[in-house]
Amino acid sequence: MTSKIREFPGVGLREPDFAEKKVLFTEWKPNARYAWDAGVAIGRYLAELKEGHIIGVRCRRCRRTVVPPRIFCEWCFHPMDEWVYLEDHGVVNTFSICHVRWDMERVAEPLIPAVIEIAGASKGMGILHLLGEVDPKDVKIGMKVKAVWKPAAERIGAITDIQYFKPVK
Amino acid sequence: MSLLEKVDKNTEARAWQGEIPIQNRYTYGLAGEKFFREIMDNARFVGTRCPECNFIYVPPAIYCERCFSRLEEWVEVGPEGTVQSFTVLLVALDGSPLTEPEIMALIQLDGADSVLVHRLGDVELDDLAIGMRVKAVFKPKKQREGSILDIVHFVPVDV
Description:
Radius of gyration of chain B: 22 Å
Order of helices and strands of chain B: EEHEEEEEEEE
Shape of chain B: globular
Oligomer: heterodimer
Number of helices of chain A: 2
Number of domains of chain A: 1
Distance between the termini of chain A: 59 Å
Distance between the termini of chain B: 74 Å
Strand content of chain A: 35-45%
Radius of gyration of chain A: 23 Å
Helix content of chain A: 10-25%
Order of helices and strands of chain A: HEEHEEEEEEEEE
Strand order of the largest sheet of chain B: 8-7-6-9-10
Largest interface: A-B, 33 and 29 residues
Strand content of chain B: 35-45%
Structural class of chain B: mainly beta
Number of strands of chain B: 10
Number of helices of chain B: 1
């Protein structure tokens, strides 16, 4: 609002106005299907997830192992082609407790997204995933966690082939 | 696997498939509401007239594009009109070929100064001409729902 405009022109509409057909309207659902090219590195990463492995790649020059794999080292721009199988456990690098889902739905059981440093990769190298089978109050940075995989038959080559990471007793 | 490895067949490409769930709802606005209600309830066309420019807008607007006057004078136009331009479509919106070509036209309804986009029907491609006289064919009243598709198409007027 400004000193000159006290009220905006037009008609405010609420959901019931549409249900009762008080106004005319047209609905449209654009076809927003897409295919994202995973590339060589992420392509292999997803293929290995389907087999139940987490794979990383090593830079010979910087002597570090990165995960998720990428095709060149972003430190020295050297091509990386030394593939390394990593462990399916690691430690929590950082985490968050979410009471709201991605589509803004409130969830009864909070979600715990976390960055997990994967054992076998260089320090600080990790992937984003969910924690499960743990009370949100008990989550600590540095705690050891292990991947809980989907059954082999249900794996499709996606990051969700790992259901979540659970604490190691 | 090296950097130089190439995927030669598109069936081997590793792609992540997804769909972004979006939808929208368009309301016609003050002028559009009246325009489409007239079509739905009375199978008539109305437009707005600018008193400054003496220009009649169909579809109507509430402001004049030329002088920004507020338009409050409603006039009935049509239902017959003149083809000002046309194009013959051989492919659908998704790029697939159409079995029956569609003809889209700019139609200036009698009394209006602006044009309306719609389909032409019941016309041979050879008979298409700029300046041909056409009239609107409306859906039966029960099937009309306040949309531009309440008009099936425009057909040539038998002279």
